Structures are given as structure tokens and as C-alpha cells.
């Protein structure tokens, strides 16, 4: 173990390596953070007890409470049904972007914005197609509106809450709920207006991925099995009539973990055989109806009821499904759906569907239960090609009870009667009481990956400050600070955070920049609120690259966008964002 005098150097080296690995984007973010946290403990830069304190950190608890509360609201209220009324009569892309941006920004100010964007994507696509406007003109504005809405309040993004936790851990007065509101509203209003003017011109008419998938015939890998006591048991493939099928081809048989491929016409079928077909989804019902001794393999374990439907969805960018199979992730329980077909462009698939590792961009054909839409939108893992059914809303009494209780909780928190954490716990208790939230939902939306990232982020900030590494960085980066005015220093902190968040996660950007902002505040006499707000707003300025924020990645593939599309419109939005924020700082803090 390194001696204490080397702890600051160890912290800086570990953080430098972490940033480099994150930029390469070759490894899962949570894995990189986990190794970073382990390295900090091994080097002695932070102790194991201090690292584990993150589990009880109020900011992390608040973030997860907000995730659960957002999921409960999303599953219980028909948000899109309400938005539908807002968009009635809108026929131009400019008008749509203004109304969509305003609605999404308001929701994102108080909710986790990933499910908001996930739910909105099918609606945006449908509106664009019905009004003969390319969805590629609308999807980047959707993502940007969600990001801008997140900076209106303290709870609008997990980055703000993480920063507030770091401030509290440093023994300083935390930022208040509405410290973000004035600059956040200014940024959002001007940003949405700019997008309404610029997006239809700068974002060309492209055939988006959803249209391409819908308009083209897709060859799926479909898995069927012999039902119990099937009349086909003991008959050959040719005798049953499984050769020369219209729209389908029998590619292989899986029997007791043994693959038979190619399948000879004389192959005798046995009980529990799994038959894999490649073919067009439009012929699935014909195939099943024609051969009553066969059934879709997954429907045996998935009870087909009145509200069950077939659904097609795309595996989203940054999805937790990437490189994992349905069996290991517990797909049926997690999403209330069973995969019965997989389509991967330009690639022939083989093997049991439940054992095939899914890839970003795969199109899944699923038998979906009544809760699929709500569950999938909460995770952002899937992008549904069409809306299939509305959300089953709670009774009006439950909604009124929840609404009144939530308003009262926020009011009591605003006047200091309850802490914000206590208010969130009360809101969650109301959701449990009105059956908006249950253990199943909590298990589905809580993310171990996010917990690891947040815990290590807190540890990074703590180790940099306690070891003196933050002061070393500050001394080198701001060696001429004595000759710079406060506005220049705040601008440099903002721009540095902005550049970091454009290439690594915004949580990582905050954990790296907070110690620097803290040391600068202690040594220069600048208002620490101004420096910390510049860190928060810099970390949320995620417009110039697609990988700066998860919602950008969600729309990138769908809109067939390139890096230059984000940079072209994102650079203009970023300039507006920077100008509004720095004007606010100049007027109110300097």
C-alpha cells in the first residue's frame, strides 16, 4: 500500500486513466468505475468504510427515490394521452417543436428524462409521418428539450443531485431546489425557439430507422416447438409438410442441446423438439394455424390473455440488453414480454432465441403482456415501433389522493417543514398506498450499474479533496489565477466541465470538476455557489456529441443521424446555453 504522501498522486493517476478509458468507450461504464473505485481503495487514497458510506449518502438515496417515483407515475398516468391534446391542430414542424419541447422540458424538470423520451419517440414518429415531415427533423429537438428541462430544477437530473451531495459532504450549504430555475428557464425557452427555427433547416429529410424497418420485409429467426402429445411426433419433416413453406424455411432443430442443421427431409420429429424457422413475420399466424401440433416456444411459459399482443421493438443504443441474452437478464419478468423472433440486418442467426446475445439495433418480435409498454419505457432499453395499447390508468380517487399528497409534500419541503428527502419518502409512501408502486416495479427500475457509478463518483471527489490532489490540479490549471478576474475563472470552470461531459459521462465530469471548483472557491474568494452552478450547468451542456447524454444515443440510430448533425445544431444551442448562463452569473453573483 502506498504511503499517505503518494495518495494525491495516486488519485490523479487513477482519475486520469479512468477518463482515458471512458473516452475510448470500449468497456462498460460501470465496470470502468468499479475498477477505478477498487484502485482507489488498494492505493489507500480512500478507505473501504469511506467508500461504502456512499450507500447511505442522501443524494444517492434521493436519485433512486426519484427513479422509482418517476416509474410509478409513468406506469399509472397516460402522459402521452394528455400530450396528444396539446398537439391537436399542429401541422408545421416549427409549431410541433415548440409544443413538444415545452411539454417534454416541463416533464423532465421533475422526472427522469430517459423514460420521457422513450415514451415520446413513437408519438413523435407517428406525428411526423402523418404530417409528411421527416422524424429526423424532430428527434434531436426531442432529446435536447429533455436535457434543457433537466436544468430547470435541482431534481431535473441526477448530476445536480450528485453535485449537491458532494457540496454537503464538504460541509457547505447545499444548493436550493430553485437555484437552477431562472437560468434553466432562460436556456430552455431560447433553446426551444432556436430549435424550432433551425432544426427543420439543418436536419435534412432522412428515412429514419423506424420507417426503414417498417417498410422493408424482415427475415426473423422464429422458434417453435412441438406441443405435448403433438400429432407430429414420430413423423418426418417432409411428411408433416415442413419443407417448401411459403415465407418460411426450417433452418435447424434443437434436440436435447444438440443442433441439427441443415435439417434433412427424413429427420424424424420428437417430443420437445425446438424448430427454428427463418422467415417473414407476416406469415407467423399462418404458420401456427396451419400446423396445430406446433406452438410459439415462448407462449408456453407466457400466458396469452386478452390484452396480449405482438410487438416489434428495436434494442436501443446504450441498452442494458446489449451483449446479453434473454435468459440471463430475466426478460419475461422484467418487461412482461417474451421474445419469439429476432431480426439482425445482414446476418443469419442460429441457436435458441433465449440464448442468443442481443445487439444494439436488433429488432425483436415479442408476445407482449398488458404492462409491456410501461415497463419498457421506464428502462429506455427498447424503442417500440408502434404504440399498441394505452396505459391502464389508476382510478380517479387514487390519482387525486396522490396528486394532493404530492403537492402537500412539496409545499412542506419548500417551507422547510420537511427535508427534501423526507418529502420524497412521503411521496413514495403515497404511491405504495395507492398501488402505483410495488416491489416488482422497484426491482425492475433500480440499477446496480448506476449505484456503482454514483458511489465511485463520490469516492473520486472525496479522495481528490482529502489527498490534496484537487489543490495540485487547481494550482497547475489556474497558476495565473491571481491575474484573472472572477468571471474568467468561472467561465474556465464551466467550459472545462462542458468539454469533459461531451466525451465522458456527465456524472464523471462532475466528480472530477467538483474538487477543482471547491479548491478554487477556498483559495480565490469566488462565491462557491457560482462555481458549483457553473459545474452543474457545464455538466448538462450535452449537445455537441451524440454520446454526451443517453437520450442523444437513443435518437441517434433512429434518426439516422451522424456526428456532424449533433455538432451542427448542438454547437448553436450550446452557444445560447453558455451565453444565458454566464449572463445570469454576471448579473446575480458578480
UniProtKB/TrEMBL annotation:
Keywords: Membrane, Repeat, Transmembrane, Transmembrane helix, Transport
Location (main, coarse): membrane
Topology within the bilayer: Multi-pass membrane protein
GO biological process, alphabetically ordered: potassium ion transport
Keyword Protein transport on entry: no
Cellular compartment(s): Membrane
Pfam families noted in UniProt: CitMHS, TrkA_C
Entry GO CC: plasma membrane
Residues covered by the RCK C-terminal domain: 207-293, 297-382
Keyword Membrane appears in the UniProt entry: yes
InterPro entries membership: Cit_transptr-like_dom (IPR004680), DASS-Related_Transporters (IPR051679), RCK_C (IPR006037), RCK_C_sf (IPR036721)
Transmembrane intervals: 6-24, 31-48, 60-83, 104-124, 144-163, 175-199, 400-433, 445-467, 487-518, 530-549, 569-589
Example GO molecular function: monoatomic cation transmembrane transporter activity
PANTHER family found in the cross-reference section: BASIC AMINO ACID ANTIPORTER YFCC-RELATED
Protein name: SLC13 family permease
Amino acid at each position: 500500500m502506498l504511503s499517505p504522501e503518494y495518495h494525491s498522486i495516486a488519485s490523479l493517476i487513477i482519475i486520469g486513466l479512468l477518463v482515458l478509458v471512458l473516452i475510448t468507450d470500449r468497456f462498460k461504464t460501470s465496470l470502468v468505475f468499479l475498477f477505478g473505485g477498487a484502485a482507489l481503495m488498494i492505493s489507500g487514497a480512500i478507505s473501504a468504510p469511506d467508500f461504502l458510506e456512499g450507500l447511505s449518502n442522501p443524494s444517492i438515496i434521493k436519485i433512486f427515490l426519484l427513479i422509482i417515483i418517476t416509474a410509478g407515475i409513468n406506469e399509472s398516468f397516460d402522459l402521452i394521452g394528455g400530450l396528444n391534446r396539446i398537439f391537436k391542430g399542429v401541422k408545421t414542424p416549427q409549431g410541433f417543436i415548440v409544443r413538444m419541447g415545452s411539454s417534454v422540458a416541463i416533464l423532465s424538470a421533475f422526472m427522469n428524462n430517459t423514460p420521457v423520451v422513450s415514451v415520446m419517440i413513437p408519438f413523435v414518429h407517428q406525428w411526423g409521418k402523418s404530417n409528411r415531415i421527416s422524424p429526423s427533423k424532430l428527434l434531436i429537438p426531442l432529446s435536447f428539450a429533455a436535457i434543457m428541462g433537466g436544468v430547470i430544477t435541482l431534481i431535473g437530473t441526477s448530476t445536480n443531485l450528485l453535485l449537491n451531495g458532494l457540496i454537503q459532504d464538504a460541509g457547505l450549504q447545499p444548493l436550493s431546489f430553485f437555484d437552477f430555475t431562472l437560468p434553466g428557464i432562460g436556456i430552455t425557452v431560447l433553446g426551444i425557439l432556436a430549435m424550432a427555427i433551425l432544426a427543420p433547416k439543418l436536419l435534412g429529410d432522412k428515412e429514419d430507422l423506424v420507417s426503414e424497418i417498417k417498410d422493408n420485409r424482415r427475415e426473423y429467426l422464429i422458434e417453435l416447438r412441438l406441443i405435448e402429445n403433438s400429432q407430429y411426433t414420430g413423423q418426418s419433416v417432409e411428411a408433416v409438410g415442413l419443407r417448401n413453406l411459403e415465407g418460411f424455411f426450417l433452418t435447424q432443430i434443437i434436440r436435447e442441446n444438440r443442433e441439427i442443421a441443415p435439417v434433412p427431409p427424413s429427420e424424424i420429429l420428437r417430443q420437445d423438439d425446438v424448430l427454428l424457422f427463418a422467415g417473414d413475420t407476416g406469415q407467423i399466424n399462418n404458420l401456427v394455424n396451419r400446423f396445430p401440433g406446433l406452438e410459439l416456444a415462448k407462449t408456453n411459459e407466457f400466458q396469452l390473455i386478452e390484452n396480449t399482443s405482438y410487438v416489434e421493438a428495436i434494442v436501443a443504443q446504450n441498452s442494458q440488453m446489449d451483449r446479453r441474452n434473454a435468459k440471463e437478464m430475466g426478460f419475461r419478468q422484467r418487461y412482461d414480454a417474451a421474445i419469439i423472433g429476432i431480426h439482425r440486418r445482414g446476418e443469419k442467426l442460429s441457436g435458441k432465441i433465449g440464448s442468443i446475445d442481443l445487439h444494439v439495433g436488433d429488432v425483436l418480435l415479442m408476445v407482449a403482456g398488458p404492462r409491456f409498454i410501461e415497463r419498457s419505457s421506464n428502462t429506455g432499453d427498447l424503442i417500440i415501433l408502434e404504440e399498441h395499447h394505452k396505459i391502464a390508468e389508476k382510478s380517479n380517487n387514487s390519482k387525486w389522493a396522490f396528486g394532493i399528497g404530492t403537492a402537500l409534500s412539496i409545499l412542506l419541503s419548500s417551507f422547510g417543514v420537511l427535508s427534501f428527502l423526507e418529502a420524497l419518502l412521503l411521496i413514495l409512501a403515497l404511491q405504495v398506498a395507492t398501488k402505483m408502486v410495488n416491489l416488482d416495479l422497484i426491482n425492475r427500475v433500480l440499477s446496480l450499474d448506476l449505484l456503482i457509478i454514483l458511489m465511485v463518483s463520490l469516492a473520486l471527489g472525496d479522495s481528490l479533496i482529502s489527498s490534496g490532489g484537487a489543490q495540485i490540479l487547481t494550482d497547475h490549471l489556474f497558476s495565473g489565477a491571481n491575474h484573472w478576474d472572477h468571471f474568467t475563472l468561472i467561465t474556465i470552470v464551466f467550459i472545462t466541465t462542458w468539454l469533459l461531459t461531451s466525451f465522458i459521462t456527465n456524472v464523471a465530469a462532475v466528480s472530477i470538476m467538483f474538487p477543482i471548483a471547491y479548491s478554487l472557491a477556498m483559495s480565490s474568494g469566488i462565491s462557491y455557489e457560482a462555481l458549483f452552478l457553473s459545474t452543474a450547468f457545464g455538466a448538462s451542456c450535452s449537445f455537441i456529441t451524440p454520446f454526451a447524454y443517453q437520450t442523444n444515443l437513443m435518437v441517434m440510430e433512429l434518426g439516422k443521424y451522424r456526428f456532424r448533425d449533433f455538432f451542427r445544431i448542438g454547437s448553436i444551442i450550446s452557444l445560447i446555453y453558455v451565453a444565458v448562463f454566464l449572463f445570469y452569473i454576471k448579473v446575480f453573483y458578480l
